[in-house]
Specification:
The protein has one helix and eight strands. It is mainly beta. Strand 4 and strand 5 form a beta hairpin.
């Protein structure tokens, strides 16, 4: 997967290969459900809820919860084919605000994708 192709999102898939969420590279690394609801954001390798609580990690294209369980992953990290997009239709986004003081590092994310 190359980021230079004008894609501004990284689609995340569940263990069945269904698209469940995406990381918006244009929106401070926010994680959105396909409905457009913002649910978390990536800061370095950590994933935080919008309440500022650490809820997991994004490492090597895989999202883990705080217990280390795989929650979602990029398509290339799932051993079977993944469907492109959601059966619910087009992605939308809603506004969000990260807690003050959080600084998103896109370097770790980019290194996981290319």
């Amino acid at each position: 997967m190359k980021l230079r192709g004008r894609s501004t999102d990284l689609d995340l898939y569940d263990s069945t290969g269904s698209a469940v969420a995406y990381i918006s590279l244009d929106e401070d690394m926010a994680i959105y459900m396909w409905s457009g609801k913002p649910v978390a954001y990536v800061d370095g390798e950590s994933v935080y809820g919008f309440n500022g609580e650490h809820i997991g990690w994004f490492q090597k294209g895989i999202v883990h919860d705080n217990e280390g369980k795989v929650v979602a992953a990029l398509a290339r990290r799932i051993p079977r084919c993944c469907e492109s997009g959601s059966s619910e239709g087009t992605k939308t986004t809603q506004a969000f605000e990260k807690p003050e003081g959080s600084q998103t590092s896109e370097t770790a994310l980019y290194s996981d994708v290319v």
